[in-house]
User: Which sequence fits this backbone?
């Protein structure tokens, strides 16, 4: 059995974990997906989620400071790892002690630190892989005890190799099969959502929590007279209601019809560089970053632009002009670069890791 550990801090980590588990099941493995934050005692996991949400919505400067502090030195990261190890020892220990587990995959950085330390010190007998779900490679993602680090792009893999001597591979993102299969009929998708068939449609995404300058992007696009803004506000009902009251464009709450919604769009406007970007790459929808979130959002924006898979509307720039380039002269380049990200399969990399560990076929299937 492969144990896949995620963290319920938005859809990106969970989405990657679920898709990776699905693909591993297709290769004959039993899988189990668990929330690492649930291993923390005394509702600490819930507190971590609450603080993270408040930082992004109310105090982005605090999140930026928290994000950057871990770059200061290895000693600080080691201290954090020891604390996390103590806090999760009982509940995580029970999961890892299951004799059926033949490998552990992490899709969240904090648990990668704990797993890497346990593996390095001989307390974990099975191989450990980290699947970095973002383009950016934060120091907390990397631990020298982790057997394999899996990245979504070659540029990310190069950054990871500078931080660990262990194997690093780039396989591309893990998105659901419908996105890899291609877009739905554009006109049909627009009719399903009540959107004009002959207009330019920009889909604005803000993650499952609906954070960032979504309203500003929404208003700017409407003001052009050319673009119809569609905002996917996730679980932020207050934001959805506020945008819906403007009586133009389309403001949506949480939806499981993102494949259809992206198929209706000419361009994706985003601020985090997360799962929605990867899904857009698969569908061939150009991606533009507008006012990226602090921390990981800014790092992802810079790396995606450098990799040629997304444009960035720099501060003070004309958002509409950037979008026109993204759907005009730059479209073919962006789409080709985005689709090229899917160079392999993270599940295949995990499968090779397990086989290389010397476990028998019976152990792998158990």
Assistant:
């Amino acid at each position: 059995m492969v144990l896949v550990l995620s963290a319920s801090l938005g859809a990106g980590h969970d989405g990657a974990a679920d898709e990776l588990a699905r693909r591993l099941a297709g290769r004959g493995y039993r899988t189990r997906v668990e929330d690492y934050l649930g291993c923390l005692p005394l509702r600490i996991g819930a507190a971590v989620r609450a603080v993270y949400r408040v930082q992004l919505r109310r105090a982005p400067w605090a999140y930026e400071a928290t994000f950057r502090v871990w770059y200061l030195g290895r000693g600080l990261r080691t201290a954090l790892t020891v604390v996390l190890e103590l806090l999760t020892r009982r509940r995580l220990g029970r999961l890892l002690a299951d004799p059926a587990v033949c490998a552990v995959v992490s899709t969240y950085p904090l648990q990668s630190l704990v797993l890497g330390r346990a593996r390095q010190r001989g307390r974990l007998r099975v191989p450990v892989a980290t699947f970095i779900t973002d383009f950016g490679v934060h120091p907390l993602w990397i631990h020298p005890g982790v057997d394999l680090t899996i990245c979504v792009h070659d540029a990310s893999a190069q950054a990871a190799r500078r931080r660990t001597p262990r194997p690093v591979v780039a396989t591309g993102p893990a998105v659901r099969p419908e996105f890899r299969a291609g877009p739905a009929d554009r006109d049909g998708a627009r009719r399903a959502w009540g959107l004009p068939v002959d207009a330019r449609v920009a889909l604005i995404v803000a993650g499952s929590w609906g954070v960032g300058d979504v309203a500003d992007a929404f208003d700017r696009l409407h003001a052009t007279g050319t673009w119809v803004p569609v905002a996917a506000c996730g679980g932020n009902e207050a934001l959805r209601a506020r945008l819906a009251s403007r009586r133009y464009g389309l403001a949506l709450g949480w939806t499981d019809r993102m494949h259809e919604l992206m198929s209706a769009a000419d361009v994706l406007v985003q601020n985090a560089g997360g799962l929605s970007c990867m899904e857009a790459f698969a569908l061939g929808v150009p991606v533009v970053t507008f006012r990226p979130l602090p921390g990981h959002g800014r790092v992802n924006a810079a790396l995606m632009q450098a990799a040629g898979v997304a444009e960035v509307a720099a501060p003070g720039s004309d958002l509409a002009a950037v979008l026109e380039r993204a759907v005009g002269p730059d479209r073919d380049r962006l789409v080709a670069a985005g689709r090229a990200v899917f160079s392999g399969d993270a599940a295949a990399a995990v499968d090779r890791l397990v086989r290389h560990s010397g476990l028998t076929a019976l152990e792998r299937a158990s």
In short: Confidence is low (pLDDT under 50) at residues 360-366. The chain is about 50% helix and 15% strand. The longest helix spans residues 74-96. The radius of gyration is 21 Å.
